């Protein structure tokens, strides 16, 4: 009888939205004002409840869910507490794991989330993001993985397209929350199944057609007209860097083709003599019209580069070729790579005064006191853009926030950790402190920084030196400090840098990238798989994969520490990161460089060629390789 009464009570609670809204709640004090920054649910208790739920009660519970959902219509929600039942029901693992229950219960729950989320007359959108943002990292990961699995199952079972679209739209809320709170990494949201089913070309061209219909690259997919075509570009976080790189190539090729057609027509008009037969003659287009050719003097590297780029606009997205004046040779990629290595070494060198090192020389940051012209900062931005469009990996160590700023994304406190770990720690302690903030930290809204060796003070707000930092205004203090550090203190330098980047990369596809992905496209992937590199390596001048010295070489490489492996990669290629498609896509050559000798291995970094003498023993080979990579002169700042 007791059990039946308990089961009856459960059904009553789940059938009454008000009762369910205040179930599983922690710290609910009726004398306090409601805290809407979090759902205030004891999720451990929710999970334990579902775990102990008997089969009969679960069946009865499923039967009353439709009635419960009817009470959650957008027009009936007046208070934030009334959406708690959605969070409680979403944790019921049973409705995620069975096809029939997904169709009957999960999809209506997600649909109700989206109905409320897209409601324009209530601040529920912000509330949903905040509440999901208070999830623990494992909890948000579990929710994301469930949605990803259900997307794959929906596609595999050929379910109605509305099902996976519903899951994608809901996952966009979770992604926004996870990104805002730095709870999850980009790769958790990548969906291999979606990327296999919808190829980059299909997504890109569907996106272009939607843009033509709607008149904007940025449209709200939840409130878009029903006739728009499906494209993964509406959910950029679902696509990995390789997928977006393929779309960037499509976009670049389309622009190049358009530029080429315009140049062909211009050339034909210029060469038309009045004879109708001229129109049928083959168009012999000069090479300088097909490529963006830089003629550079080595001794005047930055000067000539700046001169060449200053007035150029039309050909910046044409394939780049570089010719060093006075030198023979055709640029088949090696000269171009060498150019980027040389110009990067020079312009990003801290001795040049445009950049400074931060966090024990791990990262480059803009020198807000630099006396260099804005032209030079504009040049550095253009160099990044040209490298991106020509698939050149640069050996740079910018912090994530630089790529955020390039993409127009907001910074947050976590971004400071890469550059100023001690200040970051202090600000975190300030925000978390429970006690007398004013008299413990003794701060005001003024900060002091070094200006050419002299301490200089600046107010973060009007009369900031007279305003103490208290518990009530400490969040404002942190916000203003971050704004000064990331924006005001480097405003002129970064503005010029970004204008140079945007001049080359006027791309809609680039705006789909996350900051981490943009970093990877410009500077390569930190994931190094030397087994894949071994499979892709080509051998020359007498070596084969079965040569004893080659076998020793790979045994030595695989035994190196990760740090030494990075140094080896830098020694041969000029960068310690892999191309975006991995080391297996790298054109890596090992060539025989004579018999046994005391000489060290050498490398042509422009062509990724390692010149390896045929050493007499594995021990000698290991010693020579380690000596070479430890003494290689790099220009990176890692």
What is the SS-derived class?
alpha/beta
Distance between the termini: 71 Å
For the secondary structure, the number of strands is 10
Rounded Rg = 30 Å
> Sheet with the most strands?
4 strands, mixed
Number of DSSP helical runs: 28
Residue share in β-strands: 5-15%
Contiguous low-pLDDT stretches (5 residues minimum) are 634-638
Main sheet strand line-up: 7-8-10-9
What's the average pLDDT? 86
* Dominant shape: globular
Helix content: 40-55%
Q: What is the topology?
A:
Layout: H1 2-14, H2 17-21, H3 43-52, H4 55-70, H5 84-90, H6 94-97, H7 99-117, H8 124-133, H9 137-156, H10 161-180, H11 192-197, H12 200-214, H13 241-271, H14 287-290, E1 292-296, H15 301-310, E2 320-324, H16 334-347, E3 355-358, E4 363-366, H17 374-389, H18 400-406, H19 416-419, H20 421-432, H21 437-441, E5 446-451, E6 454-459, H22 474-486, H23 491-504, H24 515-523, H25 530-536, E7 538-540, H26 548-559, H27 562-573, E8 589-592, E9 602-604, E10 609-612, H28 618-630
Parallel strand pairs: 1-2, 7-8, 8-10
Antiparallel strand pairs: 3-4, 5-6, 9-10
Helix pairs in contact: 1-4, 4-7, 7-10, 8-10, 9-10, 12-13, 15-17, 16-17, 17-23, 18-24, 27-28
């Amino acid at each position: 009888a007791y059990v039946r009464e308990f089961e009856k009570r459960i059904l009553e609670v789940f059938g009454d939205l008000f009762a369910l809204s205040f179930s599983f709640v922690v710290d609910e004090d009726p004398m306090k004002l409601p805290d809407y920054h979090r759902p205030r649910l004891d999720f451990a208790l929710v999970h334990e409840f579902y775990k102990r739920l008997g089969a009969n009660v679960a069946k009865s519970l499923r039967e009353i869910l439709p009635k419960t959902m009817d009470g959650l219509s957008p027009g009936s929600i007046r208070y934030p507490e009334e959406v708690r039942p959605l969070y409680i029901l979403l944790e019921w693992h049973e409705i995620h794991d069975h096809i029939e229950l997904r169709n009957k219960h999960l999809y209506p729950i997600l649909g109700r989330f989206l109905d409320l989320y897209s409601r324009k007359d209530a601040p529920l959108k912000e509330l949903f993001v905040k509440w999901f943002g208070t999830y623990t990292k494992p909890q948000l990961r579990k929710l994301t993985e469930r949605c990803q699995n259900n997307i794959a199952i929906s596609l595999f079972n050929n379910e109605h397209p509305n099902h996976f679209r519903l899951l994608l739209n809901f996952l966009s809320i979770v992604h926004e929350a996870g990104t805002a709170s730095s709870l999850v990494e980009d790769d958790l949201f990548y969906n291999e199944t979606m990327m296999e089913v919808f190829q980059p070309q299909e997504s890109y061209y569907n996106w272009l057609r939607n843009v033509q219909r709607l008149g904007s690259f940025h449209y709200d997919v939840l409130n878009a007209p029903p006739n728009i075509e499906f494209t993964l570009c509406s959910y950029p976080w679902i696509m990995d860097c390789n997928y977006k790189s393929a779309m960037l190539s499509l976009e670049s090729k389309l622009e190049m083709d358009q530029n080429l057609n315009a140049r062909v027509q211009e050339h034909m008009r210029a060469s038309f003599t009045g004879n109708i037969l001229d129109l049928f003659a083959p168009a012999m287009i000069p090479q300088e019209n097909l490529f963006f050719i830089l003629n550079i003097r080595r001794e005047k590297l930055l000067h000539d580069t700046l001169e060449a780029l200053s007035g150029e606009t039309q050909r910046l997205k044409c394939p780049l070729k570089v010719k060093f004046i006075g030198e023979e040779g055709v640029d088949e990629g090696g000269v171009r790579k060498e150019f980027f290595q040389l110009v990067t070494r020079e312009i990003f060198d801290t001795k040049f005064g445009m950049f400074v090192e931060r966090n024990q020389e791990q990262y480059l940051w803009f020198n807000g006191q630099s006396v260099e012209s804005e032209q030079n900062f504009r040049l550095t931005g253009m160099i990044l853009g040209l490298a991106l469009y020509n698939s050149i990996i640069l050996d740079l160590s910018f912090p994530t926030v630089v790529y955020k700023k390039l993409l127009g994304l907001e910074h947050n406190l976590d971004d400071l950790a890469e550059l100023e770990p001690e200040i970051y720690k202090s600000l975190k302690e300030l925000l978390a402190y429970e006690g007398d903030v004013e008299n413990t930290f003794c701060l005001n809204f003024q900060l002091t920084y070094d200006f050419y060796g002299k301490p200089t003070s600046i107010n973060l707000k009007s009369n900031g030196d007279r305003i103490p930092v208290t518990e009530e205004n400490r969040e404002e203090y942190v916000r203003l400090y971050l704004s000064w550090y990331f924006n005001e203190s480097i405003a002129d330098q970064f503005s010029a840098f970004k204008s140079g980047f945007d001049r080359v990369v006027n791309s809609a596809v680039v705006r789909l990238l996350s900051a981490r992905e943009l970093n990877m496209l410009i500077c390569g992937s930190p994931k190094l798989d030397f087994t894949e590199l071994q499979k892709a390596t080509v051998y020359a001048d007498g070596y084969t994969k079965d040569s004893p010295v080659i076998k020793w070489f790979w045994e030595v490489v695989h035994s190196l520490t990760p740090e030494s492996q990075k140094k080896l990669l830098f020694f041969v290629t000029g960068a310690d990161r892999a191309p975006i498609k991995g080391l297996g896509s790298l054109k890596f050559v090992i060539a025989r460089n004579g018999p046994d000798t005391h000489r060290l291995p050498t490398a042509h970094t422009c062509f990724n060629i390692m010149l390896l003498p045929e050493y007499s023993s594995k021990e000698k080979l290991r010693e020579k390789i380690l000596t070479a990579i430890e003494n290689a002169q790099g220009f990176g700042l890692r």
